[in-house]
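ingest -> validate -> predict -> emit
validate: passed (alphabet ok, no gaps, 71 aa)
predict: started
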Amino acid sequence: MDLCAQHSLGWVVAREGDRFIGFVNVVWDGFVHAYLEDMMVTADARHRGIGVGLVHVARDAARMSGVSSST
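emit:
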């Protein structure tokens, strides 16, 4: 758990009501670089833009935390 706390900038979760339907982990180096890992959207919730939404929220939150962006 220590490694996860050290190297995970945060998680973004998608829910539909009480149901968990998506997830992405924002992994970082502790300085200014981060990337997305372990992204998933449940099969029956795919093709609705949920994954794209997770990526956008993760990107925006990482930028607000001071992570560098090449785009």
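The mean pLDDT is 87.
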